[in-house]
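Lab notebook, page 48
Experiment: co-folding of the full assembly
Goal: obtain a model of how the components sit together before planning crosslinking
Operator: M.T.
Materials (sequences as entered):
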Amino acid sequence: MKINHPATAGTLESSDIQITLTPADSGTTIQLQSSVEKQFGEQIRAVIAATLTKLGIEEVAVEANDKGALDCTIKARTIAAAYRAADNKTFDWEEINAWIN
Amino acid sequence: MVKNKLNREIPTPYADQYGVYGGEFANIRLYNEHARHIKPVKPDHSKLVASIHDAIVATGLKDGMTISFHHHFREGDYVMNMVMAEIAKMGIKNLSIAPSSIANVHEPLIEHIKNGVVTNITSSGLRDKVGAAISNGIMENPVVIRSHGGRARAIARGDIHIDVAFLGAPSSDEYGNVNGTKGKATCGSLGYAMIDAKYADQVVAITDSLVPYPNTPISIPQTDVDYVVQVDAIGDPTGIAKGATRFTKNPKELKIAEYAAEVITKSAYFKNGFSFQTGTGGSSLAVARFLREAMLKQDIKASFALGGITNSMVELLKEGLVEKVIDVQDFDHPSAVSLGENADHYEIDANMYASPLSKGAVINQLDIAILSALEIDTDFNVNVITGSDGIIRGASGGHSDTSAACKMSMVIAPLVRGRIPTIVENVNTVVTPGASVDVVVTEVGVAINPARPDLIEMFKHLKVPQFSIETLKEMAYTITGTPEPIQYGDKVVALIEYRDGTLIDVVHNV
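Observation: model returned without errors.
Model output:
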């Protein structure tokens, strides 16, 4: 999947995460702010990175503002932001379902 | 480094000074009660002084002394900030302060610490910005966290010697007869302040409602008071009731309350003449509501409710479902009113409430206590003082006191809060040892402490899902993931005293 322009998914409500993806020249960078940074910061970064890899996105700048979201929420917001950034409206649920857990 | 009975590491100098926790009742010993120094008052002497400044001058307060306050005005307290501002202005330094607790409203303390006015603190709890500042390490000496019963013990035994107590008085006459049920800012019971009045060398009553002599009822008597000061306002009545919640609609809290009520009503303790204590959280108040229905249905009356009193207890008293309310502190206005009007609503001091070194505290007569928690671990240890990020933000309160003394202690808490698991492998800080905790109640079911086989037998047929505490922890971690341990610094920022005065844990800086 190719990122065409910046896109955001998610809110700043408690238990949600707001993810903004911006096109980048090379590699993936993740800037995370989290209310549970000390306990779960690394896990949140890992979930975002793994989700982007599964979507085939390798060049992107991620800004994430986390308010204690669970992993399922983090994956869902990442996927939504990616589809929006790629202008992709044909959701292949079976394909997503094959790797999401 | 010394390891206490819970394997918590206590740095040797503190271990030597305080002793380390060795079991709930392992360090209850004979002692001589602490005596105060008294300046007798002759017939022609007036106790009335013109200002807080004059009162401080009259007491001869100087560098290095210990002063105290009470926290009955909770988030509405003006007294501590007023007195500390005056003390700072007068240039007095190096004070130890021993308030019964510290609220968000006491944020100016941070400046007094930075300026060297305050160099030692003991308190039940630390909130918000003060807690964060202490956790960041702004004090050289660690704060000593004491339970309500533990503070009463520390004062009675002389571990805390109070030179001057500055006590906010909702009403007082000019000879120092004080109560909390009359005046502009009524807080109800003065249970924590009564201890300070009894043991401090000098007591200053600060009031905004000076009434003709003699002011009755007398909660703090003239024989304990040296000076009386009139000020414009001692507290904000709306702040006193802040945080006391109404009946919850949160389905998770209701489920917890429903399960907790099921445990209580199916226990052998639930019979005519039983007694209980609840907290002020959403679930806790809902338990009282469910309990009321069961009491009506089964025609069961309680002999007394203890606490930490809220309007829900007062309503049970009015309905005749509870015969007496025993009151060390009030959390809302109706409770304060009830204390003033109802002879069956009775005020007690912190010594009688919960001290392990009194000649028998009321909690020793208590059947069931319903308590909250920030974290509970697989050894049933409870943390109510540090957040999941390791920062001090809670209060010890009566948690370790009531749970040790009552017949069945129940800790009620959601399995997870957002992404934070409540049931964990190891709590950040132990306030109450697992030996005191009998039943943990969550929205998915309960865990009974294996140390209580009698309860396991009693609840064999309970219609609430039962799990081991390890299973509850696994269920929590499945939802949240396994949290990384907090990385603390090397500096000890707080000592957690057990109620007997030994150290059950310490808190490091973050």
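Interpretation: The interface with chain B takes residues 14-15, 35-36, 38-43, 67-71 of chain A (CB under 8 Å).
Next step: discuss with group before ordering constructs.
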